[in-house]
Design brief:
Radius of gyration: 19 Å
Order of helices and strands: HHHHH
CATH superfamily: nmb1532 protein domain like
Distance between the termini: 16 Å
Oligomer: single chain
Helix content: over 70%
Structural class: mainly alpha
CATH topology: Four Helix Bundle (Hemerythrin (Met), subunit A)
Number of helices: 5
Largest sheet: none
Strand content: under 5%
CATH architecture: Up-down Bundle
Number of strands: 0
Number of domains: 1
Length: 163
């Protein structure tokens, strides 16, 4: 029996990581823009796109990992892998907590408002950037390769049983 839901593929998860990296780069650029130029039409567009992505697609991505990738790895018996997955689960909580503060600031920028503190925005954005980048690095260096290998083995075993 496969520990992964059927059918399951990492294609969407990998593509979302690429989108996350792109939006993180845009967030870093927005922080620079806010320091130099403040809220203008370009900043509004960037902030709106970043906020929309992290409020929807990124959250859905984390939920899919929690539902479809992490459970099999948590029962793997591999202490290093289990610790890494537990770290990633904790990261999801920290990322969400940070987003609860950063998201409204991005919405304010998108709407052309200036009610937020630029230094607070910069700090929150930098924390969010670091959390997300470290999180993806752990997923892509250890957890995703292991999960992909286990999925491939599961599929190979299924083919052998059918043959």
């Amino acid at each position: 029996m496969s520990a992964f839901p059927e059918p399951f593929s990492f294609v969407a998860l990998d593509a979302c990581h690429q989108q996350i990296q792109m939006h993180l780069a845009e967030l870093a650029a927005l922080v620079q823009q806010m320091e130099s130029s403040g809220v203008d039409a370009k900043a509004q567009r960037q902030a709106g796109a970043i906020e929309a992505f992290f409020s929807s697609s990124a959250r859905q991505h984390h939920a899919e990992e929690e539902r479809n990738v992490f459970p099999a790895l948590l029962t793997s018996g591999n202490a290093e892998l289990v610790a890494a997955v537990q770290t990633l689960q904790q990261d999801h909580g920290w990322i969400e907590e940070n987003w609860i503060e950063l998201g409204p600031q991005l919405r304010a920028i998108a709407l052309g408002n200036n009610w937020f503190d630029v230094d607070e925005f910069k700090h929150g954005a930098n924390v969010f950037l670091t959390l997300c980048q470290d999180h993806i690095a752990l997923e892509e260096s250890l957890v995703y390769p292991e999960a992909k290998a286990r999925l491939a083995q599961s599929l190979a075993n299924r083919v052998k049983r059918v043959s």
